[in-house]
Amino acid sequence: MTKKFAILPCNGLDKQNGPISREVALALLEEIGGKVICPVLLNNASPRYEKLLGELPLLVIDGCGTKCASKLAAGLSLKVDRKVLITDEMKTSALRPEDTLSPGPAGMEFAKAVATLIAEDMPEEAMRNSESLFSAPVDYNTFTHDKYIFRVPREGFFFNENDCWVRVSGTRARVGVSDYVQQNMTDMTYFSPPPVGKTVEQFDEVGTIESVKSSMDLISPVSGTVIAVNTSLVESPEIVNEDPYEKGWVAELELTDFDSDMELLLDCKSYLELIRKKAAEEH
Amino acid sequence: MADDTFMGVKRELIDWHPTIDYSKCDFCMECDKFCPHNVFEHRDGDQKLVVANPTNCVVFCRACAKTCGPDAITFPSKPETIAAIKKIREEGAEQ
After folding, report:
1. How far apart are CA A187 and CA A193, in angstroms?
2. Sequence-distant (≥ 6) Cβ neighbours of residue B87 within 8 angstroms
3. What does the alpha-carbon distance between residue A72 and residue B16 come to, in Å, rounded to a whole number?
4. In A, which residues are within 8 Å of B11 by CB distance?
5. pTM score, whole prediction
6. Between chains, do B69 and A64 touch, taking CB under 8 Å as contact?
7. Collapsing DSSP states into helix, strand and coil, what is residue A34?
8. Distance between CA atoms of residues A85 and A100, nearest Å
9. At A157, which helix (H) or strand (E)?
10. How far apart are CA A214 and CA A11, in angstroms?
């Protein structure tokens, strides 16, 4: 089922990313409907959009890494359902817009392709049910530092030093972030899943989480192909705070070479020691 | 110190840090505002921002580059860095 959005595009006028963001928004309107929000009006008179934002989920299209549109949404405490970054799309798309301020035919074609990707990318449909592979209850070790109590599973998980975990079952694996990360970042506000079907090498990015305090790219502990993402985090990113090792999993992968990946991973005991040191240094 | 090593390899032996392309950088300082590890520092003169503490950079983190509007920040190749880390670990194991 295709979902309509209230679309907040970048308003940049000094380089092509802004006009292209606008074209993506217009192409989406044509393809699936929805409404476009004017960033300037939203900034000056946000109540004008209250009704619309109550009716439709919000899609933010940022032109470049400065992410003005995202910052505007965050400043007004708007709940963002979906985000797109045009510079990222330019890196992954085979299409190249012209190097002109106003999009030419290639820029328009690129904008249309990005709109189609957004319209078609319905993560809930990509989800495959493999709950049973990862349903065994997890036992935890804990340690206390000041007011913090950090949890690390007793066994069955491996970690990289970027504080991301992997839980393996046969040739499948789930990845996520550790309790140490969620406590440091505090309340999660947004989850951007990796695309299903994406091939990742070990230490490649596999999704992004944002909190009221900061944002973090998940660095995959393993290599493989993303076969499912945890769509419940899109609606409720706070699940990562509540249950980072089980319900807060981020992505599921079909593994490529776990034996080789293992060389650069820590077991539960070693990871517990690592965060003991990190906590002593940072808190 | 946990941050002095990465997977048992001395951090200073791992070539992983941002590089600023000064022909693109507009000194908006978004990367510096974002990075909690004090990798960047402000300076007087033409290059108002420098990578002052490259070994503070978290190995494989590229998040600051994503905050960069003009796309002025680059990082080394990840596969090459992984290969270099594995090589150092093997050499260490042989000693």
Report:
1. 18
2. none
3. 32
4. none
5. 0.73
6. yes
7. coil
8. 19
9. strand A157-159
10. 24
Residue length of chain B? 95
Q: What is the DSSP string of A74-107?
A: HHTTPPEEEEEEHHHHHHH-S----SSSS--HHH
Q: Report how far residue A114's alpha carbon sits from residue A110's, in angstroms, rounded to the nearest whole number.
A: 6
Per CB-CB distance under 8 Å, the chain A contacts of B3 are 278, 281
Taking the CA of residue B21 and the nearest CA in chain A, the distance in Å comes to 15
Do the beta carbons of residue B61 and residue B39 sit within 8 Å?
no
Report the DSSP pairing between strands A157-159 and A266-267.
antiparallel
Q: How far is B45 from chain A (nearest CA, A)?
A: 24
| Residue (of B88, B87, B81) closest to B16 by Cα position | B81
* Nearest CA among B78, B95, B93 for reference residue B14: B78
B66, B75, B86, B89: best to mutate for the A interface, most A CBs within 10 A = B66
For residue A21, give the nearest of A107, A96, A94, A95 by alpha carbon: A107
**Residue A29, φ and ψ in degrees, nearest 5:** -55, -45
Please report how many Cα atoms fall inside a 13 Å half-sphere around the Cα of residue B75, on the Cβ side: 21
- Mapped onto helix, strand or coil, the DSSP state of residue A236 is coil
Kindly tell me if the per-residue pLDDT of A264 is higher than 50.
yes
pLDDT in tens, A267-277: 999 999 999 98
- With a CB cutoff of 8 Å and minimum separation 6, the contacts of B80 are none
Q: B3: buried, middle or exposed (CB in 10 Å: 19+, 13-18, 0-12)?
A: middle
**Residue carrying the six token digits 């066994």:** A155
A203 touches chain B (CB under 8 A): yes
Q: Which two tokens stand for residue B71?
A: 């796309």
Convert the pLDDT of each residue in A46-104 to its tens digit.
999 999 999 999 999 999 988 999 999 988 988 888 889 999 888 888 888 998 999 99
| Helices vs. strands in chain A: H and E counts, helices first | 12, 16
pLDDT tens digits for A113-159? 999 988 886 554 344 446 778 888 899 999 898 888 999 999 999 99
Token digits for A283? 């808190």
